Amino acid sequence: MQNLTYHAPGTVAEAVALMRADPAHSRYLAGGTDLYLALEHRLPDVHTVIDLKQIPELDGIGVGPGTAWRIGALTRMADIEHHPDLRARFPALCAAAAVVGGPPVRNRATLGGNLCNASPAADTATPLLALAATVSVADGDSEHSLPLAELARGPRETTLAPGAIVTAIGLPAPAPRSGNAFARLTRSAMDIALVNAAAAVVLDEDGRAESVTVALGAVGPTVILVSELDAALAGKPLDDEALDEVRAQAEAAARPIDDVRASAGYRAEMAGVLAARAVRDAAAMALGETR
Fold it and tell me: With CB atoms counted within 10 Å of each terminal CB, which end of the chain scores lower, N or C?
């Protein structure tokens, strides 16, 4: 690894100013689980690291305005995995956090870092997209919010302006009679996902679908939201026939590639299988059942 200049700013404004001084040769440090490897293999021209861990407002889990949930960008995967309130309301996100590497990685890796790495296989991006998450972004002068769907442009590429920092992730409070679930397929326990899927459903008073949202990971250049499920399933019970529709639409929405880990055809088929499984489990949660 090359010689590095290290900074540990105490505020977002200070961090942004340091980055703007030399953006081509600087990188932000969150958990570091991706950055350290990248510095060795992909980023030979980076010589300045700006550590964000001394900025207190970037960490923590709590309820924000309007009963929405706020998760600081530097919150570690292990903290999300074991947080009792998140587990009760957003089990899909906690299940995804629980499979990010092994325990040593989860005690370092951060939610914001996982999203800003912009991998289409990032496990936490899939449930967050299904749950209509937003990201708060600061550029040193102001802060704004955008839908998570607008953050990633492609593999390892975001829409963030130079120097901007994701400060937090927002989740709307769960609706009554709602549920969410996450499903994942991989070759081994700590490998990245071949395919992952997440679902969020809301049922009406008769137990029929009011809304169904499905997101897929590792089957396109970004995480994919399966469109038109609401129109196809609204007012219907989420029975085997409905799950067949979920499976077909998810498989059609997938845009995978062939690589050494799996064929495109296999990934597309498994996207349908995992999507249907996630919808089934989310519906069970909405009905007060367990899986």
Answer: N
pTM over 0.85: yes
Which residue type occupies 269?
E
Q: Specify the CATH architecture of the domain 5-51.
A: 2-Layer Sandwich (3.30)
In CATH terms, the fold of domain 59-171 is 3.30.465
Q: 3.30.160.270, 3.30.465.10, 3.30.390.50, 3.40.50.960: which CATH number matches 178-286?
A: 3.30.390.50
Distance (Å, rounded) from C-alpha 289 to C-alpha 291?
Answer: 7
Q: What is the DSSP letter of 237?
A: -
Helix (H) or strand (E) holding 274: helix 264-286
By C-alpha distance, which of 146, 47, 131 is closest to 95?
131
- To the nearest 10°, report the CA torsion of 145, 214, 205, 290: -110
CB distance 275 to 247 below 8 Å: yes
Task: Give pLDDT tens digits for 20-77.
Answer: 998 888 989 999 888 877 777 777 688 899 999 999 999 999 987 777 999 999 999 9
Q: Do 165 and 90 contact (CB within 8 A), yes or no?
A: no
Q: How far is CA 288 from CA 161, 197, 209, 281, in A?
A: 43, 21, 15, 11
Is residue 141's pLDDT more than 90?
no
Angle at 69 between CA 64 and CA 74, to 5 degrees: 95
Say how far apart CA 54 and CA 73 lie, in whole Å: 13
